[in-house]
Write a structure and sequence with these properties.
Length: about 350
Amino acid sequence: MKSFLSIVAAVGVLGSCAGAQMVASHKPTAVAATVAAPSSMPAPATTSVSGDLLHATGKPVVKVNGAVLTDRDLMHELYVIFPYAQIHNGIPKEMEPEMRRGALEMIVFDELVYQEALRRKMTIPEAKYEASRKHFMKQFPDQNAFSAFLAQECKGSQQVFRQQLTRSLLIEALVKQEVEEKSGLTDGQLRKVYDDNVKKFDHPESFRFQSISIIPPPNASAEVLAEARKHAEAALKAAKGTKTYQEFGLAAEKYSDDDFKVKMGEHRLTDRAQLPPDVVKAALALKPGEVSGLIAVGPNFTIFRLIEHVAAGRESFESAKKKLREDMSKVKVEHLRKDLYTKLRKAAKVQEL
């Protein structure tokens, strides 16, 4: 659940207090406060993405029980869904329709939840508001920076800022009440799922390791292959000089030719059957933290540092319980959130403009 406070905190000083128009007695924030939403990166209103999808002008896009939400609200929600739009020079055109539909439903959901919180006469205790306000203020280096934010995003009004933060806290409170607090699972429920699917918790003998791979081009000449070996030997010397995960990872970044070099050379637990026999043989002779010698795999060379050797077996319920709870809770949260949205939408008048 992302509140106005937590989402704006994630992006520094960008917010959206002034981004919406209302015909009702309240204003919607352009920042989403929905369950399991990714960190947002609200864009300035002048940002234009392919097809003018994010060229926000304040144009109304949907009316929810009389409350008008605009393309600014939609724009900010799109940056919640696709936070890298600015980096990638916009949203890919083929993705726009689906993302727009998802963003529209998200802002409608937020508004419906907010209206339901008002209908229930829910309030935010002053202590809760003040704690959230103080947390938010920590995102600014000084008072001048906050004042600039307030002028740009909240029309310079502390009252507008308070309304927007309170709105998000109300959304957060109602969703917590109707979704998060109902998504808990007992140990008995988890045990039944484990017992009914016990074979899914079987695992093969596996290894987790970091690697450095030297990969000559296809059909390389003898001279190129010789140069590859020389490079591999230099990599081996560097790898043998490492003592930690971090040090080996840096060596992988420097010497390795495969895609794992951007992940500190790390391979997640890998089934023994998926590894070359010579690699398995070397891995069985190592203790965690030790580095292999230079291993030839066809024309390629590899060096690896063993992180973990897991014997074949079955994960116990106690060991599996934490992740099982997390995974099942996520599914239950999504179902509860969908049910809440369906219930609120059924009783609402939603008109796309």
